[in-house]
Amino acid sequence: MNHSIHTKRTVPTELSVWAYPWDIADEGAATALDWLKQHHFSAIDLCPNYHAIATYSARNPHRTQFYSEQGSVYFHPQLPRYGRIRPKVHDESAVLDVYGEVATAASNRDMRLNAWVIGMFQPWIARTYPDTAIENAFGDRSYAATCPAHPDVRAYLSNLLCDLCEQFPIDNITLENVGYPEFTYGWVRPRILVYMSPWASFLSGLCFNEHSMSAARAHGVDPEHIRGIVARELREYLNHPLMPGADDPPISELVAERCDHNEDFRGYLEARDQAAAGTVKTVRHALRGHNVRLGISGASPGWAMDGLRLQDLLHTINALMIADPTDEAETANKQIQTVRAASTDIQITINQTAHYDTDPHGPGFVARADRIASIHPDRVMVYNFGLVPAATLAHTGSILHERLN
Q: Binning pLDDT at 50, 70 and 90, where does residue 4 land?
């Protein structure tokens, strides 16, 4: 069944807001949710964990800056249910209490509580358990992120989400960054003084952690052979780097061209993609006893930088979150068409920022809202409760509510 991207909805679009627990703790859960409901928001997407971050909050009345060097967990975990990897818990009890407070406040106001969950970008895990870190073709580990093929990482993420769903009435989970991150993702003050073409960046991000290589062996590919090819090609590039020139083709096209000419390379990438998708499938299986909708952020219609291809996940996920469809119109259309052509119940979620670049108070944002409305998404999530001025978030909620419903 082939559906247009303009398929009509019979129920209102849910309007939600991303939120950090520390901003809600400082404002107060009841006060924050009263304000959100007043300004047309019917749900809140609260992160139970987060990566390394430094924020400057326009809204928070008590602290403008929040800093976490390696990331943390932001609710009270039930520690006995975890295995080798145990949560690194944030040290402010008032922040850890927020999940329970928001759950109660949301229930009392007929609002939904959703979870926005970080996957591989967890520096504290990579530092504490070095074998989980991603590793490039030269054997260098990046302690910014973990490898999605590692069984302990999968077990930890599954335990974390089951723990969350056992304690709180979660309606929707959105998984962010559960594939292989780009090679500079999460770097602190990076220094790269040569031009890294999209292809060089892609090769630099390929993981040769032992578990990624084991996945390749299971796929019938010699990972050491591929590792050697990638290392030699990157070394040659670094010795003779390109200069920025004309627009580069999309990475999906570059990867497809290489795969057409090298079956071993294709096999390595297929194993990589299966490992990334396998993490999502492991989580979905772990959550089978919980009445929760599992979504993912940003799966690609073709070969992907992070290894997450939408086609591999159509029978696993219940929701797909796409980036602002005005900025990435062609990609968004392909994602929506793929989802709506599939014979599965997958909701469409839009990630809409209220960042100043989107002209939130001008006609540009109205055009964005009209573009979103033409898609008829199931949910729109606005980023971010604490990081934009209250007047901007209120105006954003008003425009989206008017245009969507």
A: very low
How far is residue 36 from each of residues 18, 79, 104, 244, 360, measured CA to CA in Å?
11, 33, 15, 45, 17
Q: Among 343, 342, 350, which Cα is nearest to 295's? A: 350
- Give 46's strand partners: 19, 115
Task: Say if CB 172 and CB 319 are below 8 A apart.
Answer: yes
DSSP-based three-state secondary structure for 390: helix
Contacts of 189 (CB under 8 A, 6+ apart): none
- Amino acid letter, 39: H
Question: What pLDDT sits at residue 298?
Answer: 84
- On the 0-12 / 13-18 / 19+ scale of CB atoms within 10 A, 390 is middle
Q: Which two tokens stand for residue 251?
A: 């990475």
Stretch (H or E) spanning 76 = none
Contact between 101 and 193 under an 8 Å Cβ cutoff? The reply is no
Report the alpha-carbon angle 74-307-268, nearest 5.
Answer: 130
> At residue 293, what are phi and psi to the nearest 5 degrees?
-90, 125
Considering the entire predicted model, what is its pTM? 0.94
DSSP secondary structure, 314-342, as one string: TTT-SEEEE--TTTTHHHHHHHHHHHHHS
How far apart are alpha carbons 41 and 185 in whole angstroms? 31
Asked if 88 and 101 count as a contact pair (C-beta separation under 8 A), the reply is: no
Count the helices and strands in the chain (H runs, E runs): 14, 14
How do residues 171-208 score in pLDDT, each as one tens digit?
999 999 999 999 999 998 899 999 999 999 999 999 99
- Which domains are seen in the chain, by residue range? 14-404 (3.20.20.80)
Distance set, CA 211 to CA 103, 133, 135, 151, 312 (Å): 38, 10, 10, 8, 20
Q: Where are the beta strands (DSSP E) in 102-231?
A: 112-118, 133-135, 141-146, 170-176
Contact 197, 248 (CB under 8 A): yes
CA distances from 255 to 160, 248, 249, 268, 313 (A): 34, 13, 10, 12, 20
